[in-house]
Amino acid sequence: MNTAPAASSASADEPRWLTDEEQRVWRSYIEAATLLEDHLDRQLQRDAGMPHVYYGLLVKLAEAPHRRLRMTELAMSAKITRSRLSHAVARLEKSGWVRREDCPSDKRGQFAVLTDEGQEVLRRHAPGHVDAVRQAVFDRLTPQQQKSLGEIMRIVAEGLQPSGADADLPWLR
Questions:
Q1: DSSP characters for 1-60?
Q2: Does position 3 have pLDDT exceeding 60, yes or no?
Q3: Which pTM does this prediction carry?
């Protein structure tokens, strides 16, 4: 229930409250995003013994040249804090799926490198994961809805990634 004043009656000092329709859309998005992340996380925990975020890191490394990325690039690509990335990479190292290498051009920098074992884990578990994604999202949408969803998410993502040096983005924390 929207208990905020009507959007048209708001003064310049008041927030622009969501309309009833905007509130419905927002809540539907939050519910779907939460349920989707939980669904994918449970599928990967059950089938591969790792959370969805770790799987995403392995995929990003698999797609990188020589299966390696600087830790800062990996954090930026995954949209997570450096601290969370460091913890995740430590767990992935423990499993033998990733290793760290020092950066020869920057003594403080490190690379995360996907191991052959990590590549094999992806090869084994990618079919089940893509099936879960397909069933949860793409099989439920028409081709036009898929295109619209992609366009909408690109617009939202672009708007949330300011380019200024003072931007408060996860990988800068």
A1: ---SPPGGG--TTS--PPPHHHHHHHHHHHHHHHHHHHHHHHHHHHHHSS-HHHHHHHHH
A2: no
A3: 0.84
